[in-house]
Structure to design on (153 residues):
């Protein structure tokens, strides 16, 4: 299916927001037509607005007593309506966030470019905070991607 105008990038922000934004995420924010987000950090919100004043605060979709799933569907609809109008959209992280995965799936099915850019993970922060190397003493097993894809496990 040919690519269409408009795109969706889900960009990870990390746990510590501003301090853990990757260069890839900052570039995505700066170059987007609109940045959608849900934040409870005024400094992070100010940073995003400074990088790109064209924002949509998805927090306004929440309401007391409203089912969370309904809000998630609306978030997906907001992202996709902006993509369908030809805008390049950046939205909040995709891990533990259902609307982002749903929006990427639908955007791709409709022929729009859609990707996810990783942020610094909660697990990485936990390991650092605890001073633990998860691969020492067999605590955790990790695989190099090519090895994982080419070897039976």
């Amino acid at each position: 299916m040919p690519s269409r105008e408009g795109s969706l990038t889900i960009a990870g922000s990390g746990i510590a927001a501003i301090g853990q934004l990757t260069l890839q995420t900052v570039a995505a924010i700066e170059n987007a037509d609109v940045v959608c987000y849900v934040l409870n950090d005024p400094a992070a919100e100010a940073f995003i607005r400074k990088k790109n004043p064209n924002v949509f605060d998805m927090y306004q979709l929440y309401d007391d007593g409203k089912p969370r799933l309904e809000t998630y569907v609306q978030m997906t609809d907001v992202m996709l309506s902006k993509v369908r109008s030809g805008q390049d959209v950046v939205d909040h992280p995709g891990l533990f966030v259902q609307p982002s995965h749903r929006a990427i799936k639908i955007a791709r099915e409709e022929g729009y470019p859609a990707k996810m850019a990783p942020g610094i993970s909660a697990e990485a922060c936990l390991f650092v905070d605890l001073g633990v190397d998860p691969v020492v003493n067999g605590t955790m097993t990790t695989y190099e991607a090519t090895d994982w894809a080419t070897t039976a496990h």
Remarks:
- Residues 68-84 form the longest helix (17 residues).
- The first strand starts at residue 7 and ends at 11.
- The radius of gyration is 17 Å.
- The chain has a mean pLDDT of 88.
